[in-house]
UniProtKB/TrEMBL annotation:
The chain crosses the membrane at residues 21-38. NCBIfam families: TAT_signal_seq (TIGR01409). It comes from the Bacteria. This is Ferritin-like domain-containing protein. InterPro entries: Ferritin-like_SF, TAT_signal_bac_arc. Keywords: Membrane, Transmembrane, Transmembrane helix.
Length: 237
């Protein structure tokens, strides 16, 4: 059976009075009345195995659950940042991190709604750990934000080829453009006025953002994720 999910901006409370390149830079992608045509909801996606480890599933649902996991991580990180701003933070930095927090929470909640509309096999709420992050230290927070944003961009770029539904591919393309702006903004805070936003560590020889396979992304982000999950279709177990 096919399902259709509609997502609107009803109830969104994001302050739009401040105009900067992040404030509404693509944020409307999940809030402007998108309609997604879902996969068959009777497929055996994300079934729990005997060890009660959640598998992300197959096909488009697997990719959506993968993106949802990453958005959960970013939303959780920025929630911690804005709930306890590091010592000496400037008003500009507070504004930026607040914007990033709103963006990532919207991305996270959008994916949860989208997946719930097409299957009951939705990745549960994950638990995270930040063993090596000092949330009261500017350098530590910025370095972690840089790593998460760069990883997010590479993750979307690498997973795009596995998406078969054109509607999902359009959404992923819009979200990754926002994530790239996040990455650029963080890099500018670390090294203002530099060209780090297009550094060789994130841009390939053709001038394109790097794309990484899900297995590499999960390995890179795995240190933050306490809740185990698998994605057997992509060799993650």
């Amino acid at each position: 059976m096919k399902k259709t999910i509609n997502v609107s901006n009803q109830g969104v409370t994001l302050d739009t009075s401040r105009r900067n390149f992040l404030k509404l830079g693509g944020i409307g992608l999940a809030m402007a009345g998108l309609t997604l045509i879902g996969c068959d909801d009777d497929n055996d996606y994300g079934m729990m195995d005997d060890g009660q480890i959640f598998d992300l599933g197959t096909g488009d649902v697997g990719v959506l659950n993968y993106a949802y996991a990453l958005e959960q991580l970013e939303a959780d990180f920025y929630t911690k940042v804005v709930n306890n701003f590091y010592s000496g933070i400037s008003s500009v930095e507070k504004e930026l991190f607040t914007d990033l927090y709103h963006h990532e929470v919207i991305h996270r909640d959008f994916f949860k709604a989208a997946i719930s509309g097409v299957t009951q096999k939705v990745l549960p709420t994950l638990q995270f750990q930040y063993t090596n992050v000092n949330f009261n230290d500017r350098n530590s927070v910025l370095a972690t934000a840089k790593a998460l944003e760069d990883t997010g961009v590479a993750a979307y770029n690498g997973a795009g080829k596995y998406i078969t539904n054109p509607a999902y591919l359009v959404i992923a393309g819009k979200i990754v453009s926002v994530e790239a702006r996040h990455a650029s903004a963080i890099r500018n805070l670390i090294n203002p006025g530099s060209t780090d936003f297009s550094g060789d560590d994130v841009i390939d020889a053709n001038g394109l953002d790097l794309a990484k396979e899900p297995k590499d992304i999960v390995m890179a982000a795995g240190g933050f994720i306490k809740t185990p999950f698998t994605w057997k279709e992509r060799g993650i177990s």
